[in-house]
Amino acid sequence: MDIESDAPTRRMSFGQATVDAMRLAMREDKRVIVLGEDISWGGNFGQFRGLLDEFGTQRVIDMPISEAIIMAASVGAAVTGLRPVASMSFVEFTLGAMDEIVNQAAKFRYMFGGQVSVPLVLRASDGVLRSSAGQHSSSLEGLFTHLPGLKVVAPSNPADAKGLLRAAIADNDPVVYLENKKITAKRGPVPVEDYRVALGSAAICRPGTDLTLVTYSVMTGHALSACRRLAEMGIEAEVIDLRSLVPLDLATVLRSVAKTGRLVVAHEAWTFGGFGAEVVATITSRAFDLLQAAPVRVGARSAPIPFSPALEEEVVPGPDQIVEAARKVMGLS
Amino acid sequence: MSTIDGMTPDRAAHIHRTMVRIRVFESRVEELFKAGKLPGFVHTYIGQEAIAAGVCAALQPDDYITSTHRGHGHAIAKGMAMGPIMAELYGKETGACRGRGGSMHVADFSVGMLGANGIVAGGLGIATGAALSARYRESGQVAVGFFGDGGINKGTFHEALNFAAAHRLAVVFVCENNQYAQFTSRLRTTSVENLADRAAAYGIPGITVDGNDPNQTHLRSMEAVERARSGLGPSLLNMETYRFGGHYVGDAEVYREASEVEDRRQSDPIRTWERALSDHGIMTEVGLKTIWKEAEAETEAAVRYAENSPDPEVSTALDFVFTAGS
Ligand SMILES: Cc1ncc(C[n+]2csc(CCOP(=O)(O)OP(=O)(O)O)c2C)c(N)n1
Ligand SMILES: [Mg+2]
Can you give the pTM of this predicted structure? Predict the structure, then answer.
């Protein structure tokens, strides 16, 4: 559903917007419960603040540092009538529950011949934030998008954060909800009303005619600031914020590429084997004739994210790399 | 030698019937697999029947179980009909999972069978989650997580037992200690000799049970289920048993002496139980024979059902990845 542009809004952080969504979902549906480490204290990033007071310990469950049971118990609860939201704080911690995510949650419906749905949401914080180093800075969406049976969303702003979380909780399949750490504290206008952003609906956040810039999560902001510099050079890029990676709103991307003939895909995750490769490959094979230049990917270089601020900046992409990529598809460098 | 105490003659006969049905079904599966009729591979339950039968007889129809790669026995004991199980082993559209899962993923949520699981100890957390859900819904349901002596060394065992114990969830963890994990004796891999000792780490009862004696498997399960249902929390039952067949059908079994298997076959749980049933005057020789005959007829009907069923339509290969309209 689209948000009316004149709907009353309140400025709040991305994190607060997700609390808003949680509260609305939990009020509406008693089957929604939350499981995670430290969540009665609000979670590592305040994404659960205040939920315990309103909903109590039966629904807001402090979990042991046992990622596998957080996920497995969520799967067990999901197939027996509840709609759990599992919090993994840092996305790296999901790796301790990879069997439960990959072999159980994602496969149950198919393996069991459609007998059950697994309505759960896995929330995890990803991305680089001020020298958090190798084990607390990754963007792992590519692991999840690879797996049939999982939906994956990665909002870029507080309003989408609220609407996508509402939609994810209401969805009947497992949804991985990735919230980037750098933008969790970022504030923006959020409609006061209750609304959902449909999974699989991309947003055009800046119209343009010269090239299509496909991105999501934290890189959306970087893309928009890159666009300001590109505009000064006379290049008008169209920015598409995918919002949802699975399902993927291919139609919106194709329409834009049909107009611009040029494609850049940017994410903070590693370029090699990343989600950007999937977008580029799909567009290239579906719309080769529309392309006027080889698509370019922007992503992190192939190293664990380093601690040193100087090295971190070297490995992790930002607006500079997007500007460079845009110039390249325009044949300017 | 088994006695029959603490259960009605009907219950004793029911457990016998379940054991025989599993034995006949599994023996037929072995034949079918060797004849090349079943795709994939199969792990049979022969020798361990007293556990599935005794435990599931302690459950209500809406209670839950999670199972393992060796799950056909659990499926039958929890109330799944043989036809859909057999058709699933054939990969047919009429299978319990419409041929998408096969032997290691047999499931029927309508009878509380939340799935065989090809990941060792993969069901323990799911049973725990089902118990969490039952607690929240105030449904009074109990969940049983079956696993093996190999599964007890998985981290998920620890995570599930700790969490279930911390919240006194209504779960019963049933370890089917058949002495081997694939080809390796548990004695070579496991820190404790008595697997029930692990329960102490979670502050829950850990009880070692003669897993070949239906009287024991049933009564100890009744106690653990009762305890769970009344809110006192989980138990760990270490049910000592032995698998008569290989790890899978076709296993060369180089890791154990034929004499060891022969020796263990002497205490066949079904024969032991039949002696007890006759001694107690619960079943006659003729009555026992009838049970076997009926199980054979039921199994043959299941084979016919499976063989006469269609393969899934290839156009449906991508169905059920996601929920339609979701
Ligand atoms: C996580 C995982 N690791 C390894 C395997 C391969 N595997 C399948 S069955 C098995 C042995 C399991 O032993 P146990 O738990 O004692 O069950 P049993 O086969 O004796 O019934 C192994 C290692 C697996 N399926 N899953
Ligand atoms: Mg074993």
Answer: 0.96
